[in-house]
């Protein structure tokens, strides 16, 4: 649902009217969003022309990822970039007409995880890493969580919810393989959210949005 904004201007720093909990969420989001990326996968298809064998690149799909380190490594779902002929990555700090190209450096199809590396040859500054991870984090059903992603191409959308269940097992429709130890949440996740981070209230990554049950 979209609601018209009645304010004449936006001031991300003007949070005085918010309660303490809301200010904490706003601060967490604006720190995290610069490490969350929009991923566009392209695929080559043959053109129906007289020139046999000619191909062009078409959008295969969109997804989300998050920057793992200052060397430009990005974590996402394997199904977001699988069989892509070119991978383009946009960050929150880039102008609308700019993007990184990325190469696949590793993937685990069974766990639906892929690691990309951004190409810095185009002169763009590498984005700041998002990742804040503790070696061991105890999770609880009922704990508040936050998902940042690009549902339906709407970049850097924040949704909130709670952990609804832990240790779930699901089977992906595309892969047909079971996935184990899944975090179930009621935070809204839609096409384009895949590969985005699931965060706790402190902004630590506790999981990766991977499937819509």
UniProtKB/TrEMBL annotation:
The keyword rRNA-binding does not apply. GO terms for molecular function: serine-type endopeptidase activity. GO terms for biological process: proteolysis. Keywords: Hydrolase, Protease. InterPro entries: Chloro_Bact_Ser_Proteases, Peptidase_S1_PA, Peptidase_S1_PA_chymotrypsin, Peptidase_S1C. It holds the Pfam family Trypsin_2. Belongs to the peptidase S1C family. This is Trypsin-like serine protease. It comes from Rhodosorus marinus. The lineage of its organism: Eukaryota, Rhodophyta, Stylonematophyceae, Stylonematales, Stylonemataceae.
């Amino acid at each position: 649902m979209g609601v018209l904004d009645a304010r004449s201007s936006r001031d991300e720093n003007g949070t005085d009217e918010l309660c303490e909990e809301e200010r904490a969420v706003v601060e967490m989001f604006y720190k995290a969003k610069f490490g969350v990326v929009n991923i566009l996968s392209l695929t080559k298809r043959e053109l129906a022309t007289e020139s046999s064998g000619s191909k062009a690149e078409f959008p295969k799909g969109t997804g989300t990822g998050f920057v793992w380190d200052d060397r430009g490594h990005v974590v996402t779902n394997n199904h977001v970039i699988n069989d892509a002929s070119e991978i383009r990555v946009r960050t929150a700090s880039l102008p609308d007409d700019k993007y990184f190209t990325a190469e696949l450096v590793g993937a685990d199809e069974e766990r639906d995880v892929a690691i990309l590396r951004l190409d810095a040859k185009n002169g763009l500054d590498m984005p700041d890493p998002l990742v804040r991870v503790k070696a061991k984090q105890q999770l609880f059903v009922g704990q508040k969580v936050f998902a940042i992603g690009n549902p339906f191409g709407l970049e850097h959308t924040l949704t909130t919810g709670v952990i609804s269940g832990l240790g779930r097992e699901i089977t992906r429709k595309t892969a047909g393989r079971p996935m184990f130890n899944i975090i179930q949440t009621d935070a809204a996740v839609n096409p384009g959210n895949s590969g985005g981070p699931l965060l706790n209230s402190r902004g630590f990554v506790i999981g990766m949005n991977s499937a819509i049950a």
